[in-house]
Amino acid sequence: MSSILASVALSLFVSAASAQWMKDPASSLPRTSDGKADLTAPAPKTADGKFDLSGTWLADPDPKGSRQNVENMSFSQYFINVAADLKPDEVPFQPWAKTLFMQRLQSQGKESPTARCKPTGVPAINSVPLPFKIVQTPKLMLLLYEENTTFRQVFLDGRQPVKDAEPRWLGYSTGRWEADTLVVDTAGFNDQFWLDGMGHPHSDHLYVTERFRRRDTGHLEIQVTINDPKAYTGPISYTQKLTLVPDEDLLEYFCSENERDVQSFQ
Amino acid sequence: MIASIRQILLMGRDGARRRVFALLLITLFPFATKPASAHHAFTAVFDAKQPIKLTGTVTKLEWQNPHTWFYIDVKDESGNVRNWGMEMGSPNLLIRAGWSRNSLKIGDVVTVEGFRSRDGSSNGNAQVVTLTNSGQRLFAASSQAQPIQSR
Hints:
- By secondary structure, chain A is an alpha+beta fold.
- Chain A has helices at residues 2-19, 77-80, 95-106, and strands at residues 55-59, 132-136, 140-145, 150-155, 172-178, 181-187, 207-216, 219-227, 236-244.
- Chain B contains four helices and five strands.
- Chain B has a five-stranded mixed barrel.
């Protein structure tokens, strides 16, 4: 009886997922003999010979983490802590940044901008537990994020960084190819967001370099370097690994739709 | 507390200060790395020291971002009914974990295991949801919790 129930339940979920239009019928991914996407096939290339980063990607969960709760999800360690690869006493804080970081920890996360539905900034937006889609064209790469249904534009047309930029949550991005790696530089940030869930601070001098490399069809690496001499005495680096989400499309996510937690903060 | 932390950070030699800082992080904030969702930290809203287990009838479902909420009427030993609000993850996460907006229906009797809100209200965070009639555990490490992603 329980197996029948499980089968019925599973079929209901499958039809529900289809109803969400999550499947991508136009997918041109290489397939294995059983029809599944071949995630280890060689990385595709564009007509102009560059590696094609296009696809829907999701940050890999912490390999030391476990799937939990009704969401059956575990998160990237870098979404929680950009300094996850460092010991706490190795983080190159400037004194004010260390004090602010401790204050944020003490507040148990209640001061987090995202808890108030403010945008997630760079580089954390690549590590949230919601996928994003890369659309690569010769002179422009679009990053379409499910997180807050937002986007970044990475200009590949040789333009120079914006001078005296109006500060932004997601900054201004330009990219250039170095062999098989797309190097994206982003600056012109405001200081209103946190670098991660723990609350590592930054200033308006934040400069983020993301080196995108598609290892094969199913695997992307973003080597992130955070430079902010006003907040840190040296760079913080890590590599976010991501896996292709085959045959699936983005959903909507508007945080302001039904935010109910902030009223409980004391 | 903040003043004392600042004093600790400013005192002593570099090595000792660093060790104290590392120790502070580990001892004061053991849950600092536990997110409830992409939206907020678990500790911002819920109290890991207040586990709850409630059985009640679903009265309302809010299948919306940033969190799905469902509400259950729970009767205590005296027969008094209190309505509890239970928070889960984003519908987007739940859909990918196998849920749909029809997984819970008004009138379903469920048992919820989770943690109570820090503010003492009748709200909590749902970790496991079990349909009382069938005993089916809804997607908390159950056989139905097959993620759609092949990771």
